[in-house]
Amino acid sequence: MDLRFFTAWTLGALALVALVSYLIGSVSFAVIVSRVGAQDDVRRHGSGNAGMTNILRNYGKKMAALTAIGDFGKGVVAVALGRLLFPLLAGEAAALVDAGYVAGFFVILGHLFPLYFGFRGGKGVLTGLGVLLMLDPVVFAILLVLLLPVVFLVRIVSLASVLGYALFPVFTVVVNWLRGDPFLFKLCFAVCIAAIGIFMHRSNIRRLLNGTEYRFGQKKDAPRQGENQQ
C-alpha cells in the first residue's frame, strides 16, 4: 500500500465515511419500534439492550422482525454508501483501500453507542451480519456454513456470535490471500470489528464459561441467564 496517497483530503474522505456510517448506525430500530409499536422503551425490560432478541422476548415476533430488518439493513446501507461516497471524494486513493471496512466498523459502533438514544444500544450482531454480507459475501457464506450448525446444536446464539467475530479476521486474510488481493487494510478493520464485538459479549462469555448462558427455546418461566444478542 502506497502511503503517499493518504493525503489530508483522503483522510478527510475516510473521516466523512466514518461519520455518516456512525450516524446511520445510531438509528436504533429496537428503540423506535418499541416506542411506536408499544409506547414503551425496550431498554426498560429484559436484558436492557436495544436489540432484536430483547424485542422478541418482550413484544413478540412482528416487532422483532421489523427490528431485525432495520438492524441488518443499516449495515448493508452503510457499507454500500461508504463505497459509493469514498471514490467520489478520494480520487486515486480509492483504488488502494476499501472504505466499506471503515463504514462497517463505524455503523456497528453507532449501533452499540447510538448518538440519538443516550449511547445505549444493542450488541450489533444483526448489523454486523449486514456489514459482513456487503464486505465479502464469500467470508459471509463460510461463516454461515460453519456457525449455523453451532446455533442449532447447542442452541446458544452468543457462542456462535463470539466465534463468528473471532473467525472474521482469519477468513478475511485467507480469502483475500487466495484471491491475490491486498488485505492489510481490511485486516486492520476486521480486527477492530472483531475486538469490539467480542468485548460487547464479555458478560455472555462469562456465562458460557460458567455454563449458565441462555439457550433459545428455554421455557419462559425458567431462570433466564442470557442477554440480548443483537
Automatic annotation (TrEMBL):
Keywords from the named record: Acyltransferase, Cell membrane, Lipid biosynthesis, Lipid metabolism, Membrane, Phospholipid biosynthesis, Phospholipid metabolism, Transferase, Transmembrane, Transmembrane helix
Bilayer topology term: Multi-pass membrane protein
Annotated GO biological process: phospholipid biosynthetic process
Catalyses which reaction(s): an acyl phosphate + sn-glycerol 3-phosphate = a 1-acyl-sn-glycero-3-phosphate + phosphate
Top-rank taxon, per record: Bacteria
GO CC terms: plasma membrane
Cross-referenced Pfam families: G3P_acyltransf
Keyword Transmembrane: yes
Transmembrane segments: 62-86, 93-117, 129-152, 159-177, 183-200
Entry's localization field: Cell membrane
EC code(s) of this entry: 2.3.1.275
Pathway given in the UniProt record: Lipid metabolism; phospholipid metabolism
GO MF annotation list: acyl-phosphate glycerol-3-phosphate acyltransferase activity
Primary subcellular site in the record, as a coarse category: membrane
Classification via PANTHER family: GLYCEROL-3-PHOSPHATE ACYLTRANSFERASE-RELATED, INNER MEMBRANE PROTEIN YGIH
Entry-linked HAMAP family: PlsY
Family statement drawn from the similarity comment of this UniProt entry: Belongs to the PlsY family.
Functional note: Catalyzes the transfer of an acyl group from acyl-phosphate (acyl-PO(4)) to glycerol-3-phosphate (G3P) to form lysophosphatidic acid (LPA). This enzyme utilizes acyl-phosphate as fatty acyl donor, but not acyl-CoA or acyl-ACP.
Quaternary structure note: Probably interacts with PlsX.
Protein name: Glycerol-3-phosphate acyltransferase
Natural source organism: Candidatus Anaerotruncus excrementipullorum
Lineage: Bacteria, Bacillati, Bacillota, Clostridia, Eubacteriales
Gene that encodes the chain: plsY
